């Protein structure tokens, strides 16, 4: 029998392939693209920004949703089109979407690890702190300068990007107001985030935060998302509104599209 991590490696490769080539083709919405040189990640990054239909004819300042996997050939069109439809249906209020195009995805979205098998998924891993610094110290200011933004902001992601969302929620909760994570790869570093969640929650800031997360039937994800749910139940933090969506009928490759609307609607209406 193959080892657990060998199976995980195969799953990661398969999911990546499905996400980039096998998912439905989304129409590309009107958007703006610019580049930003970053000292934090030592490279120039491509940023895609979608604004709601009435943005240019109004004077309102809007909240911002950030996302990794934010390239035009990644999940940016998918989420932008979803937001547009939800706004049209009056299910959510207008919001700006900022997509960060990937360069070294598995480096940017993974934290440190002591597990050797984890390190086999890419030539470099463990760059999440630097990627987070890029967003916080460089990208936020650029977006606020270019667009009419309110103080409210959040982040959305799935799989390894969901790991980054969850890591940011637990380790630097002050960075965003809301967090959405689909099937986060909480197996990373021997379930480090889940195992340390209680101590991070004990140090949470007083500000209200919102956290929505979901788990599919994936064997190495479902137990960990449920464990995190149990930790949140046990600690019962008064300043966190959270919702766990258990999705046993969804696979890792289907959960994002299957649950995106209810995730966004619940989160943005808190």
Q: Please tell me the overall pLDDT.
A: 92
Share of residues in helices = 40-55%
| Strand order within the widest beta sheet | 1-2-4-3-5-6-7-8
- Judged by helices, strands and strand pairing, the structural class is alpha/beta
Unreliable runs: 1-21
Top CATH class:
Alpha Beta
Enumerate how many helices there are, as a single number.
8
What sort of overall outline do the alpha carbons produce when their principal axes are compared? globular
Characterize the main sheet: 8 strands, mixed
What does the radius of gyration come to? 18 Å
CATH topology-level fold name: Rossmann fold
Number of strands: 8
Compose a concise summary of this entry:
40% of the residues lie in helices and 20% in strands.
Explain what the structure shows.
By secondary structure, this protein is an alpha/beta fold. The chain has one domain: Alpha/Beta hydrolase fold, catalytic domain (Rossmann fold, 3-Layer(aba) Sandwich). It has 8 helices and 8 strands, in the order H-E-E-E-H-E-H-H-E-H-E-H-E-H-E-H. The chain has an 8-stranded mixed beta sheet with strand order 1-2-4-3-5-6-7-8, sandwiched between helices. Helix 7 links the parallel strand 7 and strand 8. The longest helix has 19 residues, at 4-22. Mean pLDDT is 92; it is low at 1-21.
